[in-house]
Amino acid sequence: MILVTGATGTVGREVLRLLAGRGVPLRAVTRDPARLSSVKTDVEVVGADFEAPETLRDAVAGVEGVFLLTAPGAWVPEHDLAMINAARVGGVRKVVKLSAVGGRSSTDDGGTMPAHWHAPGEQALAGSGLAWTALRPSSFASNALRWADAIQAGQPVPNMTGTGTQGVVDPRDVAEVAVEALLGAEHDGMALTLTGPDLVSVPDQVALLSEVLARPISTVEIPLEAARMQMLASGLDPSVVDVAVRGSQLVRDGGNAVVTNDVHRVLGRPARPFRTWALDHRGAFLDTEETARAAR
Ligand SMILES: NC(=O)c1ccc[n+]([C@@H]2O[C@H](COP(=O)([O-])OP(=O)(O)OC[C@H]3O[C@@H](n4cnc5c(N)ncnc54)[C@H](OP(=O)(O)O)[C@@H]3O)[C@@H](O)[C@H]2O)c1
């Protein structure tokens, strides 16, 4: 039995789908089981919350492997440690943790990257006696969905990172690597840095979307302090806003220009480029008229 946490999220949902396809007995965690009412009936859905340790104890009963995904924010260390502790006490054999690029070695950027939220969990796993794999993905291609409203409205895409590039990764590749790490022993005790095959900037991504949608799309530079005010006004947690702003500055300065071969090494095929993600998700960027035309 494998327990998938974050099962309603971008990567967790895909991990659940892939494991189900391999015939693995599954239990899926969400705080609101109604959100998983449409998943296959042979997946056991449990209501559990990283904030409520007793629910985690019940969730790991009889489980051999855990896919550990905690939602981004300053609470990541506390949530990771709660789940790792429940896994250890509950007799789980292996935990595959979704972390973030930068990892534990990233100590020189003043706590500006999501990797700093994940470092305590990675350290706890390494000292837990459990088998473990840490997955450190770069920025997800699916973050581009945040631009869908602007693109549908014919407005420019807001750009906080200038011409800074990142090894933008397809979350489907992250999920496939997670499944390999959960089902095999080859990647135990390893931290894998998961990136796409090449470095792309926001203007590069927008140019690719423009090509895929066959329509011009522009970008507009957003000063980081203006972005901070906008994000705070929209109700985002200040810890998330702070990391978004400082992380954007780091990317802008070339500090996250990292590409690795880890996806290829684990999956035996190249990582999907951003263009593939854009082609497969082009429907999300079409306005209603275009969607109706595409359906005819
Ligand atoms: N986005 C990126 O570019 C990127 C890059 C590298 C690493 N990461 C890492 O990827 C992870 C996922 O981030 P994401 O933005 O893609 O989010 P997501 O997985 O799409 O959504 C967060 C998930 O966490 C669950 N969750 C939230 N609070 C919970 C709680 N208290 N107890 C149990 N489950 C809870 C939610 O489930 P319910 O609401 O159903 O309970 C949801 O499934 C983060 O750790 C992030 O640091 C993201």
CATH architecture of the domain at 2-138 and 170-195 and 258-272: 3-Layer(aba) Sandwich
User: Count the strands?
Assistant: 9
What is the string of helix and strand elements?
EHEEHEHEHEHEHEHEHHHHH
Mind telling me the CATH superfamily name of the domain at 2-138 and 170-195 and 258-272?
NAD(P)-binding Rossmann-like Domain
Q: What is the CATH topology assignment of the domain at 2-138 and 170-195 and 258-272? A: Rossmann fold
Protein name: Nucleotide-diphosphate-sugar epimerase
Pfam families: NAD_binding_10 (PF13460)
Domain NAD(P)-binding: 6-182
Question: What does this protein look like?
Answer:
The protein is of the alpha/beta class and about 300 residues long. It has a domain at about 1-140 and about 170-195 and about 260-270: NAD(P)-binding Rossmann-like Domain (Rossmann fold). The protein has 12 helices and 9 strands. The chain has helices at about 10-20, 55-60, 75-90, 115-125, 150, 170-185, 200-215, 225-235, 240-250, 260-265, 275-280, 290-295; strands at about 1-5, 25-30, 45, 65-70, 95-100, 130-135, 155-160, 190-195, 220. The strands form 2 sheets. A 7-stranded parallel sheet has the order 3-2-1-4-5-6-8, sandwiched between helices. A two-stranded parallel sheet has the order 7-9. Strand 1 (about 1-5), helix 1 and strand 2 (about 25-30) form a beta-alpha-beta unit. Helix 1 crosses helix 6 and helix 3 (about 75-90) runs parallel beside helix 4. The longest helix has 15 residues, at about 240-250. The radius of gyration is 19 Å and the shape is globular. NADP nicotinamide-adenine-dinucleotide phosphate binds near residues 30, 31, 114, 139 and 140. NADP nicotinamide-adenine-dinucleotide phosphate (NAP) binds near residues 12, 32 and 49.
